[in-house]
Amino acid sequence: MDDRACLAAMVRTMELLGTMRRPWDVYAVATAQEEAGLGYLGAVTSAFRIRPDLALVLDVTHADMPLAPEHKTFALSRGPVIAVGPNIHPAVSQRLIQTARRLEMPFQVEPLAGNSGTDAVDIQVAGSGIPTGLLGVPVRYMHTPVETASLADIERLARLLAAFVSELDTLDLSWRD
Ligand SMILES: [Zn+2]
């Protein structure tokens, strides 16, 4: 499921966007070697090649399970998880949250105080900097052969992304504290 759950959501997003307005060009990228750490290699080279005006990173996060601390996990089937924190452009996370609310979709927020441990780290500082968002779905028993994700969360993630992308022309990325 890590990170095939998000790959499924990405493919579904592109399917949904086929019948929606697309004010911006959209690149769907499946990167290699995120788990290798120490510079997420595929993310670095993909960001360099495409030089996007905005990047949305899809990665799984930990779902609740026995003995896992509650404050570090998310519920299965309660919607996609939207990250907030210094690795994330605030205008992007705020718009994702607004969009989920408008769609009346359940969602969860993951505060990440520093390095998110995902492709978002390298994409954010690629080139002269790329406004980056990070979202995904909870996966139970991460990094084991029995990883478990919710199909409903994957479908919701795709619907959220498609709605976000279809309204990119109205997103103000200038940010003042
Ligand atoms: Zn992983």
Q: What would your notes on this structure say?
A:
With about 180 residues, the chain is an alpha/beta fold. The protein has one domain: 3-Layer(aba) Sandwich (Aminopeptidase). The chain has five helices and six strands, in the order ααβββαβαββα. The strands form two sheets. It has a four-stranded mixed beta sheet. Helix 3 links the parallel strand 3 and strand 4. Helix 1 packs across helix 5 and helix 3 packs across helix 5. The radius of gyration is 15 Å and the shape is globular. The mean pLDDT is about 95. Bound molecules: zinc ion. The site of zinc ion has 3 residues, from loops.
Write the layout of secondary structure elements.
Layout lengths: L3 H14 L23 H10 L4 E4 L2 E2 L18 E4 L5 H13 L5 E4 L7 H6 L7 E5 L1 E2 L11 H16 L11
Parallel strand pairs: 1-5, 2-6, 3-4
Antiparallel strand pairs: 3-5
Helix pairs in contact: 1-5, 3-5
Bound molecules: zinc ion (ZN).
